[in-house]
């Protein structure tokens, strides 16, 4: 694998973009450590994401997320999968953009719906109309994903593994 100036890779994008899945594949291909901010929040808190939302509300979750992203973005040679709402905080956007190479996994709502349908761990999708919720969130957040990203990668070009390869190619790492 060619030498590269990329020191770490941070994945952003909406729920169901594949940040967690593609992040694991990327880390595997690079032999870097994989970290997921949601998993780190759960490990530090000793509670799962829905429980944190229930007890502390979204505001409490966002505070925990800010602390974790500040800590994780200071590390090197990691692939970090963020949560879909991380970009809503200015401090997170700054840390992500300044401390690593940020990839926006661009994904249409239809695909997000398919990929999140079976998983009930996303409190923001506990709504009678997840399509409307995802559409609203994407319209608010898409400009923020674009603002923070160094590269934009569509996630419909095949499997998670294939998307991971496309990312390495775009970064000149293969
Ligand atoms: N490129 C892809 N093609 C098909 N399915 C995918 C792809 N990327 C992710 N998935 C699937 O979508 C689901 C949600 O992915 P996940 O990594 O949890 O997304 P995120 O972390 O962005 O919310 C998982 O079941 C995963 O296997
Ligand atoms: O979009 C969001 O605000 C959220 C996305 C989730 O992560 P994924 O994007 O990995 O599903 C998780 O952080 C939490 O449920 C909130
Ligand atoms: Mg995830």
TrEMBL record:
Gene3D superfamilies: P-loop containing nucleotide triphosphate hydrolases. The keyword Manganese does not apply. ATP binds at residues 16-21, 122. It catalyses: shikimate + ATP = 3-phosphoshikimate + ADP + H(+). Keywords: Amino-acid biosynthesis, Aromatic amino acid biosynthesis, ATP-binding, Cytoplasm, Kinase, Magnesium, Metal-binding, Nucleotide-binding, Transferase. Binds 1 Mg(2+) ion per subunit. Substrate binds at residues 38, 62, 84, 141. GO terms for molecular function: ATP binding; magnesium ion binding; shikimate kinase activity. Mg(2+) binds at residue 20. Pathway: Metabolic intermediate biosynthesis; chorismate biosynthesis; chorismate from D-erythrose 4-phosphate and phosphoenolpyruvate: step 5/7. GO terms for cellular component: cytosol. It comes from the Bacteria. Its cofactor is Mg(2+). Catalyzes the specific phosphorylation of the 3-hydroxyl group of shikimic acid using ATP as a cosubstrate. PANTHER family: SHIKIMATE KINASE, SHIKIMATE KINASE 1, CHLOROPLASTIC. Belongs to the shikimate kinase family. Monomer. This is Shikimate kinase.
